[in-house]
């Protein structure tokens, strides 16, 4: 038997939520499908007019995984979307893979399980769906001057710097001190946001 | 302006996300999340049989988001792209919101009231019963029915109308797995569970594209493999798929030759002394049935093209006879039949025969939608019975299901033409008696004659033998094979009701369309592949006048004089109905959890005894019905002396193979982004745009020979029909070998099932959608 091409990740922590916030410039490659005509303009690495607008246009609602805004590039997504991101000749900056970086969640290699190509303009039928709007997650500190908490779930976003540092980071969430690296030494997930609030009926899961 | 729109348009926030500097922490075009009022409630996903838990985000009476439920033991927070985009499924602009009756001209529909609609159904079904008897009425249901819907249908059809013409679309999906388990263990559903994905060593996928059809479960296996490099995946298939990308060994067989391959592995296990003799002697009997190809047929030629009623005849066999039977299946012979290297047969035999490694076999439609699907299920189960690799953590045959409650509703409630709840059947007097007692019926009420299975039900509709039919929660005029057979004709005299949430090709065939409530617009219970029963509460109001399917059935039943079957108050019937159903399961080894437990947990795997779920059926130390201190006890198989049966099953070829006129194999299936006939997922913008149209995927050598380039309009022609599709040559997600093409079945404008053949499994009567012959023409 020859070794497997790669492997994916299994999840054991917080519920799924928002993916890479820097996906205004998301570039990945996937070799198992090209389904629709390609709009190559979306692969050009020019700065979008508003990063929030672009971000919203690529998600069904705040918390949905972003669609892939470029053509299939015939390679594993993680060749460009490395753990720290990568400059791709003629295309621009490929944001880092936000799903890598902890002991309990490694790289997710079956990328297309969640991220779909979206290049056709057609709709099968019109929809009335109005999802949770894109938001900024209001953080809070334990005391004035204290380090702000993490206002979103960490599941699938373990690699903080994928969104908060580097050329692909949105300006409003750029970290001023990425060199410190161990983010959660100071910034802890906070209670009270929609992503950390559990309803009272949520009894313990049945499996041991 | 509503609140959310106001929030979206008002520039408020100061973003103070993690580590932001004071200078960069403003985002004038975004609202602050904390101001949004979103409540989260638990539900299982609406789509496949995996049963992922989701949390549903609710605001102002609408579903505005979902997220993976971290507390669900099934998916632990992860979803696939269909799950992440669930909310959009509810809000297509063309949702059906009021009952619609076909105009007297025959063209188009007009709105009518619920009272008129329900009266009309009751009148039509009552008249049909009076004039033509219980064989002339039918209900065609679904593995997407909740337990409530299925139980209401079962009582209405079997106790009310005294008919057994109740069958579900799950007949097209996992009936072969049902008959595999029933013929060998005399009880349906797997002994293993998803926990095997973290403890098995070798995962053998028989015709199973998990990366697309069960992506979250495949992720569990892949993560297990990432952490444990000794773990292997073997992909046995007729075409490369995204699943193959992660496999350690790919075994590309000719269509239908999996039967030969499995027998070849059994042959080598015997020859190499890998049989667990102690286990076999203690726990196994040997059986064989009718094996002659001409006697069995394929259910689609000659007399069988009208009605197919084959029943097997079991005979006792023995280990020695089994060994003689397998002598034919040498590695060389099998390699020749399957068109694979004989070394792959040997590798598979080593893997199944290795006592030190846990082996999990997984399968779904490739094995089930097969003219010998039950046999193929038997052979996979045989591999585990012969080696004793069964009912142990990390060692199990495990069939996957494609619909969210194919197990919970169809297989457990028993919405099949021969079934009653909890493994009971209508042709056994003691089973009818128990059912009549629990339902408070006069003895002799339940009809002992099994009704039509799905394909025969639609053949009977086409013939005119069925005069009144009600279809709920499924889309047969897209999903049945050989579709041209079932189309309506003017003045055919039949009355067809379709309950749906959107207009589909099936509602176009209806005389009356009823608008249904979907998913969290009503309360529900689903049962998933690993025997886990899951409950959700009603969270939002359905659109317009849409009503839940069970309510529709109950109202009609009451109008037909069957009030006694549904004695519960109109505003509080879910819990008492479930508790009545639960009585059927208690003490049988299929005991489902209480209503209260279901509300409190992320579901429990039956049998649930003393509030505790069971991970491994038949296993000492796990299953509360096993009294042995160690090993296994197949206590449900009373007819085999409480042992499991190994069946001798030969290789038979497919019903139709390529020839000069139709030189290519056609296989059909799913894509990751769309679910079933696409009636829900195609209304979600992101999913539709990802894979907007059906296509024909072919090998580049075939394309070159036919001068077909990528994207070319291509006519696919079979003996039944034709369809024009864009070609995918180099850019298809799968890679068919030379001589085989693939067409997904989700696109209602490009119907794959105009091409397929209504050949079916001899025992389960499940059609074979994976093998027929076609030719391609460049348009």
- Helical fraction of chain B: 25-40%
Count of helix runs of chain B: 24
How many strands of chain A?
A: 2
Greatest interface by residues involved: A-B, 99 and 108 residues
* Residues in helices of chain A, as a percent range: under 10%
The biggest sheet of chain B, with number of strands, parallel, antiparallel or mixed sense and barrel status, is: 7 strands, mixed
The end-to-end span of chain A amounts to 34 Å
Number of strands of chain B: 27
Spatial strand arrangement across the major sheet of chain B: 5-4-17-16-15-6-7
Net shape of chain B:
globular
Which residue ranges of chain A are poorly predicted, with pLDDT under 50 across at least 5 consecutive positions? 1-48, 102-107, 191-208
Report on the biggest sheet of chain A. 2 strands, antiparallel
Secondary structure category of chain B = alpha/beta
How confident overall, as mean pLDDT of chain B? 94
Number of domains of chain B: 4
Number of helices of chain A: 3
Structural class of chain A, by secondary structure, is little secondary structure
Short description:
In chain A, 7% of the residues lie in helices and 3% in strands.
How would you summarize the topology of this molecule?
The complex is a heterodimer of chains A (208) and B (779).
Chain A: H1 51-57, H2 77-80, E1 86-88, E2 92-94, H3 161-164
Antiparallel strand pairs in A: 1-2
Chain B: H1 3-9, E1 39-44, E2 53-59, E3 62-68, H2 81-84, E4 100-102, E5 109-111, H3 114-132, E6 137-141, H4 147-160, E7 166-168, H5 175-185, E8 202-206, H6 210-213, H7 215-227, E9 232-237, E10 249-252, H8 258-271, H9 277-283, E11 284-288, H10 293-296, E12 315-316, H11 319-326, H12 331-338, H13 342-353, E13 359-363, H14 365-368, H15 373-387, E14 396-399, H16 406-414, H17 429-439, H18 454-463, E15 468-472, H19 476-479, E16 495-500, E17 512-515, E18 524-527, E19 532-536, H20 549-559, H21 574-585, H22 595-600, E20 604-605, E21 644-648, E22 664-669, H23 685-690, E23 696-698, H24 700-706, E24 713-717, E25 722-728, E26 740-744, E27 772-778
Parallel strand pairs in B: 6-7, 6-15, 8-9, 8-13, 9-10, 11-21, 13-14, 15-16, 16-17, 22-26, 23-25
Antiparallel strand pairs in B: 1-2, 2-3, 4-5, 4-17, 11-12, 18-19, 19-20, 22-27, 23-26, 24-25, 24-27
